Amino acid sequence: MRQERRKSVRYRPKHGTMAVNTHALGPIINISMGGLSFRYLEGTPAELSTESLGIFLGSEDVLIDQLATRIVSDTLVSKGTAFMKTSTRQRSIQFMNLNDAQLSHLQDFISKRTQGTY
After folding, report:
1. Quick check: helix, strand or coil at residue 42?
2. How far apart, in whole angstroms, are the C-alpha atoms of residue 3 and residue 106?
3. What is the span of the domain harbouring residue 45?
4. How many domains does the chain have?
5. Residue 70: inside a domain, yes or no?
6. Residue-level pLDDT at 49
7. Main-chain dihedrals φ then ψ at residue 61, nearest 5 degrees
8. Residue at 2 is within a domain
9. b vs e for 79-116, b when ≥16 Cβ sit within 10 Å of the residue's Cβ?
10. Separation between Cα atoms, residue 51 and residue 56, nearest integer Å
11. Average pLDDT for consecutive 10-residue bins of the chain (118 residues)?
12. Which among 20, 29, 70, 89 is least surrounded, fewest beta carbons within 10 Å?
């Protein structure tokens, strides 16, 4: 039996929740007080840098910006096809050194804008 390494409960964000930086990156798969996972197309700016991310939910006009992060993992989800060579990847990040305001916004986001545990 595999032991869970995460310290924080993971939640499913509402549909349309995106991880963003200066470029749109991709949909958030799960989120916790400790970090998040998101998917992106290989070859996008996500490969270059995710030292600082934002959480964006346009349908509710929510943006939590400038969250310092560190990459925990980055895995291939699906390979491209013959006519579309772009692969999909999933990146997991850990939040680093969040200030009190960021922690408060993150807690508020998780309590009001998620759809249960993952």
Report:
1. coil
2. 26
3. 11-108
4. 1
5. yes
6. 63
7. 55, 50
8. no
9. eeeeeeeeeebbbbbbbeebeeebeebbeebbeebbee
10. 16
11. 64 95 85 95 64 91 93 88 79 95 96 90
12. 70
